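Quick one from the shared queue. A colleague (R.T.) flagged Reverse transcriptase domain-containing protein as missing a structural entry in our internal table.

Convert sequence to structure tokens.
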Amino acid sequence: METCAAEQGSAGIDGITLDAYPDWAKAHWANIRRGLLAGYYCPQPVRRVEFQTERRCPFAGYSTVNDRLIQQAIVQRLQPLVDPSFSEHSYGFRPHRSAHHAIRAVQGFIRRGDRYAVDIDLSKFFDNVDHDLLMHRLGKRVNDPHVLTLIGKYLRAGVSHHGNIEATHGVSPKVVHCRHCWQTSCSTTLTGFWNVKATGSPVTPTTS
């Protein structure tokens, strides 16, 4: 709960804020817990918010506070399992790493004499990550079918936009909380493939 509170963000589709959640949970958590343990819990669609300013991402998605809490619990258990498989040059959405660490790494490349850089942006990667590939990679690290099923439900939860529920159809809405740990695993694999094809070496520093 502390992590979700630190991330703040708007309320989800149910309108329940972080401040209101504790009282709401007292009345509903027993049923939610039963649903999680029995496997019939269904995540709520993500509330899509559009920005009127010129941004790289013109919209964001907000899960309900309850779903953020559940997602964060999953991440805290899975992070130690999947993080060791990530590239040492990957800094995004990882514990104890930030953009500042990435900048220092690039400065180190410059000091050692590297003079060429290729700037690549995978357009809307987190919005279009292949669910099958993502679940396949997670399945190699996670042997609990209930957890994998729940993650699959989150990926397919859909998006609420202007009161209409839109299916995700194999893509993930841009969510500001908790999912990036799962998707960074997929990003690491694709970056490794690019390294081999573009540079002929899987160890060329690719800072992300």
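Residues 2-199 form one domain.
Residues 173-178 have pLDDT under 50 and may be disordered.
Added to the table.
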